[in-house]
Amino acid sequence: MTILAADCRVAMPAHGPFDLILADPPYGDTSLAWDRRVEGWLALACAALRPSGSLWVFGSLRSFMAEAPRFKEAGLRYAQDIVWRKPNGTGMAADRFKRVHELAAQFYRSTGKWRDVYNDVQRVPALHKSKSVRKQRPDRLAHAGKIGALEYHDDGTRIMKSVVDAQSPRSGRHPTEKPVALLEILIRTSCPPGGLVGDWFAGSGAAGEACRLTGRRYIGCEIDPAMAARASDRIAGVLPFDTGGSS
Ligand SMILES: C[S@@+](CC[C@H](N)C(=O)[O-])C[C@H]1O[C@@H](n2cnc3c(N)ncnc32)[C@H](O)[C@@H]1O
């Protein structure tokens, strides 16, 4: 578990290859001094991924639209996205909807195949149990994904939905701190147990805490040395993963 106080473009490539890169860069959506888009990191991140690795990037629709061509140029292919719904969201403008969501999108190397990317789809307890065991129609397999067996057995769980509710942290550590519970979901889904997570814009070190709780190795990078020191202290204070736990 390490936090580097450095520019991720300089420091992080040498610490790969990463099983998972988490990136929560400044979105560049506002005129605030710290909210400036960082140039050139996407190609470096792509090159620092294992062939089975992937990159989850936080952003807004505005930031993804602005950066869209750069993902392709960097050699990254879009896989999926989730919505983080935050009941306590903030509205910066009085003439817009009150903003209570952010996006995170997953990318993988365009030279690879999605089926080779580590992907442990997370499941949650079913709210309503299915009454009968259904038989999968063979002609539906093509678009239904690789389900495998023809019979569907209800194990009382369901694939997690792409809208995730989590309170926006109000810890005062960082103005755009992400919830550990949300990061844990992305880490469990996209990094094997014991694998290496690179957190290229570490901020408060929330992803480091999530890695410690889920038993993944972690290297974070934060350009602000004072913030990096606080993140390091934060992670050191989290009890490590219990090796008897689940993935
Ligand atoms: C949106 S915040 C990340 C917040 C973090 N996810 C959390 O939960 O606390 C972006 C962070 O990236 C840092 N940053 C900006 N440019 C950077 C760079 N080139 N290398 C490393 N960190 C950078 C900023 O100082 C800021 O703390």
What can you tell me about this protein's structure?
The protein is 24% helix and 24% strand. It has 247 residues and is of the alpha/beta class. The chain has two domains: 2-122 and 160-236, Rossmann fold, CATH 3.40.50; 126-159, no CATH class. The strands form two sheets. It has an eight-stranded mixed sheet with strand order 1-10-9-2-3-5-4-8, sandwiched between helices. The chain has a two-stranded antiparallel sheet with strand order 6-7. α5 (180-190) crosses α6 (206-214). It starts with a strand and ends in an 11-residue tail after the last helix. The mean pLDDT is 89. Residues 7-9, 24-26, 38, 174, 176-178, 201, 203-204, 206, 221-224, 227 line the site of S-adenosylmethionine (SAM).
SSE blueprint and pairings:
Elements: E1 2-5, H1 8-11, E2 18-23, H2 41-47, E3 49-59, H3 61-73, E4 76-85, E5 101-109, E6 123-125, H4 141-144, E7 157-159, E8 163-165, H5 180-190, E9 196-199, H6 206-214, E10 217-222, H7 225-236
Parallel strand pairs: 1-10, 2-3, 2-9, 4-8, 9-10
Antiparallel strand pairs: 3-5, 4-5, 6-7
The structure holds S-adenosylmethionine.
S-adenosylmethionine (SAM) is lined by residues 7-9, 24-26, 38, 174, 176-178, 201, 203-204, 206, 221-224, 227.
